[in-house]
Amino acid sequence: MRYSTPRPSNSVRHRIRFPVDLPRSLRLSTPVSSSSPAACADLHTPRAAFCFRRILAGRSLSVEVSTHPPCVIMASAAIYSLFIINKSGGLIYYKDYGSAGRTDTNDSLRLASLWHSMHAISQQLSPTPGCEGIDLLQAHNFDLHCFQSLTGTKFFAVCETGAQNIEVLLKVIYELYTDFVLKNPFYEMEMPIRCELFDLNLAQVLQKDRVALLGR
Amino acid sequence: MQFFGGGSSLTSVPPDAGTPAPAAPPGTGTGGGPSAQVLYVFNRGGVCLLYREWHRPLRTLDPTQDQKLMFGLLFSLRSFTSKIDPTTAEKGNLGVPLLPGQGCSFYSFKTNTYKLNFLESPSGIKLILITHPRTGDQRDTLKHIYNLYVEYVVKNPLYAPGTPIK
C-alpha cells in the first residue's frame, strides 16, 4: 500500500510495489519481457488483478494508474461526517470533516449500530408495504442522508440543513466503494476499510464538491 | 422554538370552534389534510393518549406493541440526533434520557413509503403525524394540532391527565 505520494491528476505515474490497492485499470508503460495479454487488461475482476500482481511481484515496474474518472456532482452544502456501516450494523468507515466536539471511536461505533437499528425499526412501522428504511432525517441543526445498497451496506452523511443532491454524492461514494474497496483483493468483507485509493478518491470527490460549493 | 401560537389563531378555526369538549379528532379536518395516514399522541411517560389512522393497509404488530415500538424509536432517535449533532461541542452520553427541548431534536424523517413528522412540546407531549413521503414541511400542522390539544383537552375540566383522550 505504499507508493509515492500521488499527484491529484487523473492519470498518475506510480511506482507500484507489492501489495498495493487495486486501481481501476493498469497500463504498463514499459513492456514486460513475458508480455502477456493480461498486461493491458482492465483490472475489473479481483482475481485477475491478483494473478496479474503476482506476475508483477518481485519486479519493480513503472505502470500507469488510472484513478477514478471525474464525476460531475453538484452537491451544494458541506458534509460534517460520513459513516459506512456493514450489513450487521458494524462501523467500517468513519470520516469527520469538521464537526464541533470530538466523537470518539466508541461513540461513533455506538452511533453506527444505533442508526442500523433505527433503520430497521422504521421499516417495521411503515403504514404501507415495501418500506426500505429511513433515507432522510431532518433535525434542527443538520440533515442526515442515508443510502442503503442492495447488499445492506449503509452509507450515511451528516450535512448542513437543506443540503441538496447528497443522495447523488452518496451514490458516487458507493461507486468508489465498489471500485476501490470491493475490488481490492486484500479487503476482507465486512471489515473496516483501510484502502489508500479509496481514501484518495473520496478526498478528491469531496474536494470537488467543496469547490462547486464555493463557486456558487 | 415557539409552541404557543396564541389563542387568536385558534378562534378563527371554524370546524372545531363550536365544539368545546371533548376534542374533535385532529387531522380529520384542518389538521393533516388528505395525505395524513396515522397520528399518535404520547405523553411524557410514553402513554399513548391518542391514536388515529386514516390509511394503513399494513399492520405488522398489535396496537400496543406498535405504540411501544414507535415511542422507543422516537426516544432512541432523539438521543441519536443530540449525540451526532455536529454544531455543538457539548454532548451528553448516548442513551441517557433527555429532557424535552434538551439537545438537538429532529422534526421529520422520510422513508420511501412514508414521512414521519414529529413535535415535542416543552411538557413532553409528543405528536407524531405520518404522511405521504412527498408532503412538505408539516411543522405548522403539528403546532396547530398541539394548539387544539391544549385548547380542548388540557382545558377540559373532565379530562384526567395521563389518560387516553376520549
Largest beta-sheet characterization of chain B: 5 strands, antiparallel
**The first-level CATH class name of the domain at 79-215 in chain A:** Alpha Beta
Percent of residues in helices of chain A comes to 25-40%
Computed Rg of chain A: 19 Å
The ordered string of helix (H) and strand (E) elements of chain A is: EEHEEEHEEEHH
Strand order of the largest sheet of chain B: 2-1-5-4-3
Report the mean per-residue pLDDT of chain A as an integer: 75
The fold-level CATH name of the domain at 79-215 in chain A is Beta-Lactamase
Give the overall average pLDDT of chain B. Answer: 82
Distance between the termini of chain B: 29 Å
The proportion of residues forming helix of chain B, as a percent range, comes to 25-40%
Largest interface: chains, residues each: A-B, 38 and 43 residues
Strand percent estimate of chain A: 15-25%
Family (chain B): Belongs to the TRAPP small subunits family. BET5 subfamily.
Organism (chain B): Leersia perrieri
Subunit structure (chain B): Part of the multisubunit transport protein particle (TRAPP) complex.
Pfam family, one (chain B): Sybindin
Describe the structure.
- Chain B: Part of the multisubunit transport protein particle (TRAPP) complex.
- The complex is a heterodimer of chains A (216) and B (166).
- With 216 residues, chain A is α+β, with helices and mostly antiparallel strands.
- Chain A has a domain at 79-215: 2-Layer Sandwich (Beta-Lactamase), CATH 3.30.450.
- In chain A, 31% of the residues lie in helices and 22% in strands.
- Chain A contains 4 helices and 8 strands; from the N terminus they run ββαβββαβββαα.
- Chain A has helices at residues 46-56, 105-124, 166-182, 196-214; strands at residues 11-16, 25-28, 61-66, 79-85, 91-96, 134-139, 143-148, 154-159.
- In chain A, the strands form 2 sheets. In chain A, strands 5-4-8-7-6 form a 5-stranded antiparallel sheet. Chain A has a 3-stranded antiparallel sheet with strand order 1-3-2, with no helix packed on it.
- Chain A starts with 10 loop residues before the first strand and ends with a helix.
- Chain B has 166 residues and is α+β, with helices and mostly antiparallel strands.
- Chain B has a domain at 36-84 and 99-154: Beta-Lactamase (2-Layer Sandwich), CATH 3.30.450.
- Chain B is 28% helix and 19% strand.
- Chain B contains 4 helices and 5 strands, in the order ααββαβββα.
- Chain B is globular.
- The chains are: A alpha+beta (216), B alpha+beta (166).
- The interface between A and B is large, with 38 and 43 residues.
- Strand 6 (134-139) of chain A pairs antiparallel with strand 3 of chain B.
